[in-house]
Structures are given as C-alpha cells and as structure tokens.
Amino acid sequence: MTSNIVKFIYKNKIVEIKNPDTNETILNYVRTKLKKTGTKEGCAEGGCGACTVVIGELEKNNIKYKAINSCISFLPNLESKQLILVEDLIDKGELHPVQKAMVNFHGSQCGFCTPGFVMSLFAMYKNYSSFKEEIIRDSIQGNLCRCTGYRPIVAAAKSLNKNNKRDSFSRDKKITLNLLKKINKRSIAIVHNNKKYFAPKSINELSKILRTEPNSKLISGGTDLSLIVTKERKDLNSLVYLNSIDELNYIKENNKYIEVGASTPLIKFESIIKKYFPDFSQILKRYGSVQIRNVCTIAGNIATASPIGDTLPLLLALDAKIIVKGKNKIQVLPLDGFFINYRKTKLRKGQFIHSVRIPFLKKNIFKAYKISKRIDDDISSVCASFNIEVNKNKIKKIRIAFGGMSNIPKRAFNCEKVFVNSYLSDKTINKAKKILEKDFKPITDARATQKYRMEVAKNLLEKCFLEVKQRKNIRINV
C-alpha cells in the first residue's frame, strides 16, 4: 500500500501530515509547526548537535532510540518512527533523570547547547545499562559546547549509573510499540509544489520508481545531500529514501567476505567490522558523530564520492566490490576505478548501490589513519590506508590509498610499486615517500595546504611501516 500521508508517533499519539513539503527539515517542523523551541539551530549542517532530537524505531519487538541531527533530516523521514523532543522528557512536572543530572552537576552555562546534550545523553540512557567513560564520550561527540566544557557534562552522565533507569518512556513502552506496529507497513509517495518524495518498502518498488523517475536523488542519511537545501538554499525536486527498505539493511558474513546492505547504518557496521579490521572501526568512531552514524550508510559515502569520504580510502585498500542494480541487471564492480572525477562515479541513471562487499585477507596487515583538526566530529585533512601482505620480511603485495590528496579517493600506484617484492628497509621507505609526489598533487584549501598534506601523507607512510615492524617483529634493514 502506498500513501501520501506521513505518520509518526508523538506524545503517544499518531500524527498524520498529508503531502508535507519534502524539503522541510524536522528542525523547521518542530520549531515552526509544533512550536517547540527547545531544539536549536546552530550550524545547519549536522556539526554542532544543538538540533539533536531522538527517534524511536521498531526493532525486533523493541524500540531502538537514536539521536539524530534534525537540521539535516527531512520531515518525511519521520514515517513510522517515534519523535522525542527535549520538552517531552518532563514527566508530570518532574525533570527526567538526565535533565536532573545536568542541573546537579552544573552542565550548562549559556544553555544554547544544553538541549542537544540532554537528548544525546537521553538516547544513551535508553540504549545502555551502564555508562562507562568511552560510551559517554562517544554519545556526546557530536555536541559542541563553547562555555561549560565537557567535564561537568561527563560527570552528570556518570552519575546516571546510580539511577534505576526507569522513566515515562519505559512506562509507556507497550503503548508506543503498538502504535509503531500499527503504522509500519506502508510505502510513501508525496508530491508537494512539484517536489516529489518516495519511500519504497522493497527493492522491486525502488526499481520501478527509478524507471519512471530516473533523475531522482537517492537519500539514506542525507548527511551530505541535505546541505543542498540547508546551506545552498536550493530545492531537491525528487528524492527516493532508501532507509525504508529492510531488504537493504543487512550484514552478511562468510569465509571470504563481509557484505553490507546499502541502507545499513554505519553505527551497526562499526561494531561488526571491528572483529576483522580494528583500524576500520577506529576510523568509523571518528566519522562525524553518533547522530551522523545513526542514519548514514557506507553505500551513501561511496555514492557521494567525496574525496574526503573517510571510508573510501579504506575500502580501496581492502579491494572492496560494490553490487550495483538497475534495469534488471546486476553488476559486481571493483571500487577501484568506480570514481571517475570529483563527485562523479560510474553509477548511471536508474542504477543504485545494492551492497558493498569487503574481502577478508586474514594474513594481511591492515592499517588506517585519519588526520583532522579535531579528533571527533571533523572532516579529514588526510586519510590513509594500507593493506600489506608480508612473507619472510619481504612485501609480496600492497595496496595504499589516500583521501584528501586528490579530487577523488585514490590509490598510490607508483608508491605501491616501490614496495612490491622489496624488503622493508629504511631505503625502501624513503624512496616510497619521494615517489608519493608522483601519485598526488594535493590542493590548498581552508582545511590544509598542499605542502602540509604531502608532508602528512609521507609521515603516515613512515608511521605505518614503523608500526608494522613493531607489531609483527619484521626486520627493517638500513
């Protein structure tokens, strides 16, 4: 069944909006329609966390709570979800335990950022049974504070370990579950002022839409695409929302590879990939923020084709493949060669990325590094990745890839040639660092200068092999 009415749960009631503006953000709706102004606009690009709200999603007869950036999420994306705002935490005149903790531990000064912190901590409070320092810091990494600082906020979060974890949302859980189940089986098709929005529930529906609407933009988290609306002030005239398709939300593992569906949130992938490639997981921990990773996808990162997309050099080094579908045809394409120019890929109209396949290379050494001005919630200046096969101190195979060094994520082919069938010596490393200048001619921009990027890339090359030697007891010849 297809509907032009968006339905979601708010305050234990089903809210229905017929043919909403498909480019309206959740933030704008909350502030101008619901008249709830606790949720703030700061950066309008998902970087500061002032706009954080929490959504509840049905997951195996349970509710999964996710903090998201409402400033870059479109209103129709609320379909079949529960919306929770900072004003909703108060129960019968009493502050929520998270709010009480922020008061008791002096977690606010000017207060502008406070609602966002409260909502991020609320999601943490609902999803974890205890709150260690790492969990707390991960939970608030997407929230910026300019006056209070993080010490009292972290202290407030730690104090929640003494709470019994019950609140009004626990009390009303059955009501919410029943309401979510009631509205969870519909596809959405909206037309508003010549702007279109589709949220298909199956791959088959998606294929049909792309045949009739080939110029549509595919959107999952929308953490990049939505900036066309919020920053460039332009319209997105036809959107197809992929995160409503359960068939694309999966992770499969076998002896040869791990396969990740196109609508699988990065936060879910992050915990799985850690078993195979710990460095990959560490880079993902610094990918945007929890708010971003709750909605964005690895397929979206690939399709966006940003030269500074954090997962892309890692996937290139790992020789990842992408499964592309369109017009009754399925292709398995190597990611290497998929990027053809700045923000341009081999993906054609009517095609979509179905999944990403990452091979296991159990005997290889995999290393990855991200250099940015901030540790958390920041864009790379340079991202580097290395996939190395060593046999008897000699490098048999190697794949080296960089982000931020070219107009596309790119392998360092000349540099790789220096290492193949070579011993890991200081001479080899120094030669490879020099050859790196043949592979890349980085630009100077607001994030870093050309000289800085090249120097950092060379240093990461050296850092990688020094760490390889240390970990694997590989001899380096002078």
Report what the structure shows.
The protein is an alpha+beta fold and 478 residues long. The protein has three domains: 2-182, Roll (Ubiquitin-like (UB roll)); 187-246, Uridine Diphospho-n-acetylenolpyruvylglucosamine Reductase, domain 2 (2-Layer Sandwich); 249-472, CO dehydrogenase flavoprotein, C-terminal domain (Enolase-like, domain 1), CATH 3.30.390. The protein is 32% helix and 24% strand. The protein contains 17 helices and 22 strands. The strands form six sheets. The chain has a five-stranded mixed beta sheet with strand order 1-7-8-10-9, with no helix packed on it. The model has no long low-confidence stretch (mean pLDDT 94).
Strand order of the largest sheet: 1-7-8-10-9
Q: Judging by the overall fold, what is the CATH architecture of the largest domain?
A: 2-Layer Sandwich
The chain-level mean pLDDT equals 94
The CATH homologous superfamily of the largest domain is termed: CO dehydrogenase flavoprotein, C-terminal domain
Helix/strand class: alpha+beta
| Number of discrete domains | 3
Number of E-state strands:
22
Largest sheet: 5 strands, mixed
Shape, principal axes of CA atoms: globular
Detail the poorly predicted runs.
Answer: none
Strand content: 15-25%
Number of helices: 17
Distance between the termini: 70 Å
CATH topology of the largest domain: Enolase-like, domain 1
> What is the CATH C level class of the largest domain, in words?
Alpha Beta
Helical proportion, percent range: 25-40%
Instruction: Output the radius of gyration.
Output: 23 Å
